[in-house]
Amino acid sequence: MKNIKFMIIILFFSALLGCGVRTKAENTVAPDIKLDKDGDVHLFIPKDADKVFTNESDKVKYEVKKGATLSAETNKTEAFTVPVVVESEITNAGEDVTEGTTTYTSELNQAEQDTSQSIDNFSLTSTLPNIFGKKVSAASQNRVMWDRTAAVRFHVTITWVVSGGNVRLTRVTGGYTNYDNRTLVTRSSVTTATLGPRGAATGGFLNQVNTVNLASNRSWAINRNYSYVKILSSSTYVGATYNATLRRGNSTWNFSTTNRAY
Question: Which strand (E) or helix (H) includes residue 12?
Fold first, then answer.
């Protein structure tokens, strides 16, 4: 009964965070942060990584092609996936406490159409022009395409702390770099969370969730004094979701990336 209750809570907050209902085991973007029998923390690259740059027990760097999302605000079927370069490292390995960071970086000029979300019977060919903010006449006359010359880089870093079989989020930083003066970030927000069974003998379930409106800030930092939760694959969530709204011409787009430790 407790497990069912925990999953219902996770479903609710997953919807709030905009990250779906994936468990950590199903999250193919985040690195695996594992404890060995001696309690030491090691980092592992997920099996679905498309490129691997660094693969060490205390530091990993890799790319996942479908790591973040981009969608047209006026037409949700216009969905694109954005590659994410993930860098994670252990920054402080103490006797009882291990601290680490995980950074997600996304370049919007690498966005690719998510065909699983597209309108039936439409085929995007290499000859079809990508005209940002304009409707494209093809199999459907209501298409709004993302212009891949719109170069905006987003990044978000979480700092996580593992102690024994418990984990918590302590800090989130992020922002963006805009290389295209025709594209504006009009608003953004970050939702931070540490959810799960309380990491103490008293028991109970902790729902620690906060959302901060960031306006169009190019850089930001948020400290969190969240309590520890137990490391459980199905009922623990530790991470942050960074959302941003972009505008170019008459077209508005929503970008979202979720950086998750557990």
Answer: helix 2-17
Given a cut of 70, the residues of the chain with pLDDT beneath it are: 1-27, 76-77, 116-149, 233
Does residue 115 sit in helix, strand or coil? helix
Q: Look up residue 208 and give its amino acid.
A: Q
Structure tokens at 199: 């990491």
A 10 A CB-CB count for 145 gives 21
Query: What is the model's pTM?
Result: 0.81
8 Å CB contact between 237 and 84: no
CB atoms within 10 A of CB 86: 22
Which of 109, 53, 116 has the alpha carbon at shortest distance from 83?
109
- Could you report the per-residue pLDDT of 197-245, keeping only the tens digit for each? 998 777 889 999 999 999 999 999 999 999 999 997 678 999 999 999 9
Distance CA 204, CA 190 (A): 26
